[in-house]
């Protein structure tokens, strides 16, 4: 008998919803995360909803998901965007207390009897008859311990951590979020069992475009620095 009916890899926004939904269906759920401190993390703009996303939050809420409950409990501002335009583009958006949001979600999942937490890194996954076998390494400051678990179904919700790369100017290095490790071993394991891997490129500018262009080193551009006038958004 496998250890879990469903094992979720990753405890970001997608992972916690997957674990919550599976537990509501009566499954024995394992959720594996690199750290309990980053559950449902909001590293950038701590907003839920907004243009092109607000309707998704409403759909999650209608299906019994966790995000709507979490933002109701931890929101500090609720606003309907684009009210000066037609109803087709009205967008509900809420700003959250980012630290309370992640803590609330973690507490909600911890209160569900059918969910077990596995704090560590999944570095191997392989099919084994009718179940999946997963290898996990648990690290502390001065030691590490490995274990293997099994599950009928596996949900990979690692987001940008799966074989993640960060590009800063001419430098490229493995990372999940900035300053956190990427899941390179898991990515290689998934590739080994026959899944085709791709990459989603996310571009993030830390300065407004006008400031960035004024401080740009033109040697990185074949055509030199742009002479077009720019304005900050």
Question: What characteristics describe this protein?
Answer:
alpha/beta, 3-stranded antiparallel sheet, 2 domains, 24% helix, disordered C terminus, 6-stranded mixed sheet
How would you describe this structure to a colleague?
The protein has 233 residues and is of the alpha/beta class. It folds into 2 domains: 157 residues, FAD/NAD(P)-binding domain (3-Layer(bba) Sandwich), CATH 3.50.50.60; 25 residues, no CATH class. Helices cover 24% and strands 30% of the residues. It contains 6 helices and 11 strands. The protein has a 6-stranded mixed β-sheet. Strands 3-5-4 form a 3-stranded antiparallel β-sheet. α3 packs across α4. The longest helix has 13 residues. The radius of gyration is 21 Å and the shape is globular. The relative contact order is 0.15. The C terminus is likely disordered.
Count of beta strands: 11
Amino-to-carboxy terminus distance: 57 Å
Strand arrangement, largest sheet?
Answer: 6-2-1-9-8-7
- What is the CATH top level name of the largest domain? Alpha Beta
Number of domains: 2
Low-confidence stretches: 223-233
**Largest β sheet strand count, sense and barrel closure:** 6 strands, mixed
Proportion of residues in extended strands: 25-35%
Structural class: alpha/beta
Q: Give average pLDDT, whole number.
A: 86
Rg of Cα set: 21 Å
CATH topology description of the largest domain: FAD/NAD(P)-binding domain
Order of helices and strands: EHEEHHEEHEEEEEEHH
Treating each run of at least 4 consecutive H or I residues as one helix, how many helices?
A: 6
- The best one-word shape is globular
Name of the CATH architecture of the largest domain: 3-Layer(bba) Sandwich
Helix content: 10-25%
CATH superfamily of the largest domain: FAD/NAD(P)-binding domain
């Amino acid at each position: 008998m496998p250890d879990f009916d469903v094992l979720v890899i990753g405890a970001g926004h997608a992972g916690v919803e997957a674990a919550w939904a599976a537990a509501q269906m009566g499954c024995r759920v394992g959720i594996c995360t690199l750290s309990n401190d980053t559950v449902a993390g909001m590293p950038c703009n701590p907003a839920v909803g907004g243009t092109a996303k607000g309707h998704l939050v409403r759909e999650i809420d209608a299906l019994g998901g966790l995000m709507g409950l979490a933002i109701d409990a931890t929101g500090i501002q609720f606003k309907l965007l684009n009210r000066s335009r037609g109803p087709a583009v009205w967008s509900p958006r809420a700003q959250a207390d980012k630290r309370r949001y992640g803590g609330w979600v973690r507490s909600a999942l911890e209160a569900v009897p059918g969910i077990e937490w596995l704090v560590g890194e999944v570095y191997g996954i392989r099919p084994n008859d009718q179940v999946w076998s997963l290898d996990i390494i648990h690290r502390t400051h001065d030691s590490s311990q490995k274990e293997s678990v099994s599950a009928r179904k596996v949900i990979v919700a690692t987001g940008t951590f799966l074989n993640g790369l960060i590009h800063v100017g001419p430098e490229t290095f493995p990372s999940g979020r900035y300053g956190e490790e990427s899941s390179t071993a898991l990515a290689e394991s998934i590739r080994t069992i026959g899944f085709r891997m791709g990459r989603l490129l996310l571009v993030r500018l830390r300065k407004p475009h006008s400031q960035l262009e004024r401080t740009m080193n033109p040697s990185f551009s074949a055509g030199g620095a742009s002479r077009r006038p720019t304005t900050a958004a």
